Amino acid sequence: MVAKGDLIYASASDSGILEKGECGGAVTAILKSALETGLVDAVLAVKKGYDVYDARPVFITNPEEIAETAGSLHCGTLLTPKMIKKFLNGARDMKIAVTLKGCDAKAMYELAKRQQLNLDNIYMVGLNCGGSVAPMTGRKMLTEVFEIDPDTVVKEEIDKGQFIVETADGQHKGISIDELEEAGYGRRANCQRCKTKVPRQCDIACGNWGVIGDKAGNTTFVEVCSDKGVDLVAKAESNGALKTEAANPKGVEIRAKIEGSMLKLADKLRAKQFAEMGTGKERLNFIMDETSRCIKCYQCIENCPICYCVECSTKKGHLVTPGQVPPPFMFHLIRYSHIADSCINCGQCQELCAMDIPNALYMHAIQIEMQDMFGYEPGVNMDLPLLALVEEPTERKRLSDTGSDQIFDIFQEE
Question: Which intervals hold domain 4Fe-4S ferredoxin-type (predicted)?
Answer without folding.
Answer: 284-315, 334-363
